[in-house]
Design a protein that fits this description.
heterodimer, A: 72 residues, mainly alpha, 5 helices, 2 strands, B: 160 residues
């Protein structure tokens, strides 16, 4: 079974660094997810729900479209 | 190890470990069953094969194996996380992603359960020996478990 490639990319890693070097564990705590999920999202292996995406953007202090990008 | 260095350290949580355990136990139980009944087929008609005790043992092994496997994998998970200097509570927690992975894996399993029902029905229509009906059901049920576990592991490792 080959996972469907996602057309959604993100800048979470860069934005974490710009946010006082926020760790994956800190971001995970803020959005109520596991660190493994944050890793999967950063690596494009998992697309979060819309609500989780907004929570990530809020935690990083950026608008949603600065965090997630869609390239069909 | 600093918090920054811990970024990207991958840890299998309880669900992923559970998938490995149930897949391995299902294969082990089926191989035990096969090892118990296959030699009998060389000189015994299918109707006379003593398959029920072997299957009950195999089912017992899979139940006990699942319980022991869950305990061992929980301990191994906690020890592994501690060795890596990570917070066990954070690392082994599950969330919506785990639920989605489980949901998709179950859908894979449903295909096999559908095949199981069809196979049993067809064998019964053909008036097959109860040995073949029972064995086919057990084999496809084991395959369903392996398919579910495999799907979960692939989704955890390759993404979805």
């Amino acid at each position: 079974m080959t996972p469907k490639p996602t057309s959604v990319t993100n800048s979470i890693r860069r934005l974490r660094f710009e946010n006082d070097e926020m760790t994956q564990a800190e971001l995970a705590k803020r959005i109520g997810a596991s660190r493994q999920t944050v890793i999967a999202i950063e690596q494009g292996k998992y697309s979060p729900s819309l609500e989780a995406a907004f929570e990530i953007a809020h935690a990083l202090g950026r608008p949603l479209d600065e965090v997630f990008h869609y390239a069909p | 190890m600093t918090a920054r260095n811990r970024d990207d350290v991958r840890v299998a949580n309880s669900n992923e470990r559970g998938a490995w355990t149930s897949g391995i136990v299902a294969v082990g139980a089926f191989l035990f069953y096969l090892y118990s009944v296959a030699p009998q087929l060389q000189d015994t008609a299918p109707d006379d094969v003593s398959w029920v005790p072997a299957m009950l043992w195999a089912i017992g092994i899979s139940i006990v194996g699942s319980i022991v496997g869950a305990i061992v994998s929980s301990i191994a998970g906690a020890v592994g996380v501690t060795i890596k200097g990570l917070d066990a509570e954070d690392e082994l927690a599950t969330d919506d992603r785990d639920k989605e992975i489980q949901r998709r894996a179950r859908l894979t399993g449903y295909w096999f359960y559908g095949a199981l029902a069809a196979a049993v029905m067809i064998l019964a229509m053909l008036d097959a020996s109860t040995f073949w009906i029972g064995s086919a059901a057990f084999m496809i049920g084991s395959l369903a478990t392996v398919a579910e576990s495999g799907t979960q592991i692939v989704l955890y490792r390759k993404g979805m």
